[in-house]
Amino acid sequence: MNIAFSSDSSWNRWHPTYDELGQLCKKYNVSYLELVFYPDNDKFYQSPEILKNYGVDICCINATAKWRPMLDDDPTVSQKKLCECIELAKNCNAKYVIHYPGYNTSFNLKETLDQYKKRLDPCLNMASKYNITLLLENHFDLRGEDPNKMDPVRNPDLTALFMEALNISNVKVNYDPGNVYCAGIEPWPYAYKILKDYIVYVHLKDMGYYANSIYGSSKDIETLSDSHSGTYVPIGLGDGGINYFSMLNDLKSNSKIDYFTFEDHARPEIRDEVLSKGVNYIRNIINK
Asked: Is the pTM value of this prediction over 0.90?
């Protein structure tokens, strides 16, 4: 198993140069990066070479939630962008592409399954051709699009049902315990045990339930909100409400998982604190 960093949305806002990202990885002796698809960034398409200068390889491309073919009247543009991410993964020798197809309330579960296969067909074919695994990430309702909590990637039981019915060998789960927590669902043992057979990649961030009296004004920190369960604060691994100790002790024995990837979701003034705690926490567990 390997530790990786993600150039997530918070990183992109607060520390956006790829040289600085390479320096950050080198500082923590992290050799892998999940490259998030921000093609408008300066030197984005040169970023794999830039990062290589710091001893960092790309392990995964994150397509972002900007391209969601399940919500498009015409999914052609989203398909092309996802295929571009798959092509980029191939060129970087990365095994994975995380994608967020979106949840369409006009479809029931069977229709969602059928539409996923139809709308992702060119992407699925390209990924299969290049031996790339597409990852579905469990998520919460950040945008108020899931009024009945029926998005298959929200509820672990629905996710498992969807994956079993989908039955495509190169579509797996990126397990994000922090997202499960934001959805108001128990990440360990419940969600993890339900999804264990499908998990090949893991996002790491701990979460606390937001209160002004604990964390101060929400204007001064990064927060993540679910339309049903409330607002949460990403914090250092081991400092939040998720039982990472038990989960990581189980995860480290799962030979299917190649990468544990940190999403710091932190402003620059606390980024080092969050990453330092997290990296030390996981290394102390996996090295025992």
From this structure: yes
Q: Answer yes or no: are the C-beta atoms of 37 and 9 closer than 8 Å.
A: no
Instruction: Give the type of residue at 213.
Output: S
- How do residues 105-138 score in pLDDT, each as one tens digit? 999 999 999 999 999 999 999 999 999 999 999 9
CATH code at 2-286: 3.20.20.150
- Round to whole Å and give the CA distance between 133 and 127: 7
Domain range annotation of the chain: 2-286
